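Why GIY-YIG catalytic domain-containing protein? Reviewers of the renewal asked for a concrete example.
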Amino acid sequence: MEAAALTNPERLWSAQEVLGRPSPVPAMAGVYGWHFEQTPHPDLVAGHLLYVGIAPRYMANRSSTQNLRKRVRYHYRGNAAGSTLRLTLGCLLGLELRRVGGGKRMTFGKAGEAALSQWMAENARVCWIERGEPWTLESELISQLDLPLNLDQNRHNAFHGRLKELRADARRLARELPIST
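Here is what the prediction returned.
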């Protein structure tokens, strides 16, 4: 039943709706799912659940301040250093990853992140379910569903190797470039 709420949701929410005030996304723990009207890669199917994430993530020795609202909003407007979904989408869309700041963080730069935010506003739609200890459901979903944009716990997915390689290539190229200002 919980999987169906993400794979076949009653409603999908746009960036404009999620980023609006008040935001419809609850400030609670849970699992969120991403669907795309147009996919970032021709081998992916539009209109299907392609990625799930959680808030907060499991932290054995401290508590997290993350919740669904903060996390989903960050994916829509943050940067690749803080969002594995943004990193994946940007790499699939061919944006140039760059080292920033002290050189350890990697983003698509100001223009690239803005282009990615615009692409997501046009194509990415999200849904969610509230759930205490969301990491348990995330593991179940990744093992049972075809979620090609998830890498963690998802080696069995047919797209995993290609996505992992694409992201590694982007990081390698970023390390060869000067740190971006």
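The two ends are 47 Å apart (CA to CA). This is the kind of structural detail the renewal will allow us to pursue systematically.
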